[in-house]
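Following up on my earlier message about iron/sulfur cluster. Here are the inputs again, as you asked, copied directly from the submission form:
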Amino acid sequence: MIRELLSRWPLIQQLRTGVDGTGAESMTDRTRNLQPKTAGAKVARSICPYCGVGCGQLVYHKEGKLISIEGDPQSPISRGHLCPKGADTYELHTHRGRLEKVKYRAPHSREWREIPLEQAMDMVAERVWDTRERTFEETRDGQSLMQTKALAHLGGATLDCEENYLIKKLFTAGLGMVCLSNQARI
Ligand code: SF4
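Thanks, got it. Here's what our run produced:
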């Protein structure tokens, strides 16, 4: 038993084989059998959510639980690389400080309270529609105008071409908004 244990000791193996101890002989059985945290996980291909570069990501998950998010070597844009921000996407999803409920502070209130997402979306839609109804100008000086300057939209850098197309179509052609901007235009 002791003899067997000693024979597995990396130092004994080095002495026995005469190698310099920088290769596999320096590994313990535990090291040799280590598995990556993604072993046995399923993987889905995705895009980094942070900026318009659109680097490819591999999202590893097991039994409905997120395991890791890494760069996708097959992405023609990023070829497996992620910048420090993109490399932290896993923490974006899993950090204990992440807010998961909508916070609402009513006018003149000092308190934030949690409200359901559905309710928040309805409140936003109601305010947008009410503002549009109150401020929409069909004509000015006898000329057709069909616009409102009371609403604006500022888009983030993650929006892609298709999303920007839909935003422009809904907000400008649909609601008559003229104040639209987006980091993606740079
Ligand atoms: S934030 Fe970084 S990793 Fe993500 S798309 Fe932009 S450059 Fe790529």
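One observation from looking it over: Helices lie at 2-8, 10-17, 29-32, 84-87, 89-94, 117-135, 161-174. Hope that helps, and feel free to reply on this thread.
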